[in-house]
Specification:
The complex is a heterodimer of chains A (346) and B (86). With 346 residues, chain A is α+β, with helices and mostly antiparallel strands. Chain A has 6 helices and 20 strands. In chain A, the strands form 4 sheets. In chain A, strands 9, 10, 11, 12, 13, 16, 17, 18, 19 and 20 form a 10-stranded mixed β-sheet that branches. In chain A, strands 6-5-4-1-8 form a 5-stranded mixed β-sheet, covered by helices on one side. In chain A, strands 3-2-7 form a 3-stranded antiparallel β-sheet, with helices on one face. The longest helix of chain A has 16 residues, at 99-114. The mean pLDDT of chain A is 95. Chain B has 86 residues and is mainly beta. Chain B has 1 helix and 5 strands. The chains are: A alpha+beta (346), B mainly beta (86). Chain A binds chain B through residues 33, 36-37, 40, 142, 144, 146-147, 193, 195, 234-238, 240-241, 243-245, 247-248, 258-262, 264, 288, 293-296, 298-299, 301-306, 308-309, and chain B through 11-17, 42-46, 48, 50, 53, 55, 58, 60, 78, 80-86. Strand 15 (235-238) of chain A pairs antiparallel with strand 5 (76-85) of chain B.
Chain lengths: 346, 86
């Protein structure tokens, strides 16, 4: 669907350092194209939460900087108005993060690798806004709303809800067998990462589940590994041929599923269960925590570019947290991937 | 030989889809690689220096092949990158 977008500012990411007390600008990058990403995420979040209709007659967006001190931007606000049958519904989302933050992290890492800054030097980022030329202030943006089918819980194969909780705006159900399989495969793989395809559906139920405000639910129903994917310590290569084969399996299952996500692990060792809680912050572990890496962002943005995408990761929790093997489900929320609660089912 | 008239291109999940009619901006003279680029641009999908491929009927299409040389039934594509998790 097309959105009429008014954005009267351009955005500029700047990286700075002050190695000897004197500020030095390291790099400048145009962040204006990132606005499209924010508008699409706002639309998808509004549709998933049912604050916005799935197929409006007209959609308009206004994008505004929220200044910390002009021209420095603390947040970018996206206001959306969707019209359906003469009625308007509006939402607002404020983004303190977006693609520019990942770009800044990548640029800072490259500067350190290339000797542009010292390895221990702090690199600061700032986002600045400046008035755009009048002809650039209005545009039409082609956006993709999520594809959602009408289903009942019975249609979805949900016989009973189990442990866990739901985010009121983004309820996620995960089949208990899927979770148990992923955790078992993660244990088996040890330091190496493992992964595979996840089948699932985006569905609108007749009524919200207990704990949810929206009828739209994301269901992850089954996991499929394939030997053509290749895992190693700190990386997992997804085979396009294997993902394509998984998509065919999803179709053959005849339940309206697709390869809705992929999972991967961040490693787990038997000794992890008794280690970090006592070791505290001084403990250095070679295994990454159960959080998306910059490479995981690249994975999600490339393989599942829709803003309804999920990124499940199995692995250890941050140091200091109670250590048991975790299965976390990350979703887009205000410009970044954040762990959302989920509930299992059988 | 009957020729393609339109192509439905999607990501692996089918959430991002683009219907391309082959009588406008894209014609039968365009190559598979050019159409993959068109899909990525239209959907604002960052290339991330990855190798992107189009698949039809379970087979990877040759980037250099012109659309006019494809079979009429090659009208449902999946565009998938070679990508790693970290």
């Amino acid at each position: 669907m097309d959105a009429a977008v008014v954005s009267q500012y351009g955005y500029r990411l700047e990286l700075w350092s002050a190695p000897d007390g004197a500020w030095r600008r390291l790099k400048t990058r145009d962040a204006t194209p990132d606005v499209a990403d924010l508008v699409e995420e706002a639309l998808v979040s509004g549709v998933l939460s049912e604050e916005l209709p799935l197929e409006p007659d007209a959609l308009a967006a206004e994008v505004l900087p929220v200044f910390s001190a002009d021209p420095f931007v603390a947040e970018i606000e996206v206001r959306l108005e969707a019209r359906l049958n003469g009625h308007a519904r509006t939402i607002s989302r404020r983004f303190a993060e977006g693609p520019w933050v990942r770009a800044a992290l990548r640029d800072a890492a490259l500067l350190r690798q290339g000797g542009g800054v010292r390895k221990d030097e702090t690199v600061y980022r700032l986002l600045a806004a400046e008035a755009a030329a009048p002809e650039a202030a209005s545009s039409v943006l082609a956006l993709d709303a999520p594809r959602i089918a009408e289903h009942t819980l019975a249609d979805l194969g949900v016989r009973g809800l189990g442990a866990g909780a739901l985010d009121p705006e983004r309820p996620i159900l995960v089949h208990r067998r899927l979770v148990n399989e992923v955790l078992e495969w993660t244990r088996e793989a040890g330091k190496a990462e493992t992964g595979g395809a996840l089948f699932g559906r985006l569905a609108r139920l007749p009524a919200p589940l207990p704990g949810a405000r929206t009828r739209v639910v994301t269901v992850l129903s089954a996991a499929l590994r394939d030997a053509r994917h290749a895992g190693a310590a700190s990386s997992f290569d997804f085979s396009p041929a294997a993902l394509l084969a998984a998509a065919e399996v999803a179709e053959e299952r005849g339940a309206g599923e697709s390869v809705l996500a992929v999972f991967h692990s961040h490693g787990w060792l038997a000794e992890c269960a008794s280690c970090a809680a006592d070791a505290g912050k001084d403990h250095a572990c070679a295994l990454p925590e159960c959080e998306p890496s910059l490479q995981d962002y690249v994975l999600l943005e490339s393989l599942f570019p829709g803003k309804a995408a999920l990124l499940p990761i199995a692995g250890r929790r941050p140091a200091g947290a109670s250590q048991r093997l975790a299965f976390e489900v990350f979703a887009w929320r205000l410009g970044a991937l954040r762990a959302l609660p989920w509930q299992d089912y059988d | 030989m009957p020729v393609l008239e339109n192509i439905c291109i999607a990501d692996i999940s089918g959430q991002k889809r683009l219907d391309v009619r082959l009588n406008g901006e894209i014609t039968l003279k365009h190559t598979v690689g050019q159409v993959v680029d068109h899909f990525l641009d239209a959907k604002r999908i960052p290339r991330n220096e990855l190798r992107w491929s189009a698949f039809s009927r379970g087979v990877m299409l040759d980037h250099k092949q012109e659309l006019g040389d494809l079979h009429q039934t090659d009208d449902q594509w999946r565009v998938i990158p070679e990508v790693s998790a970290g």
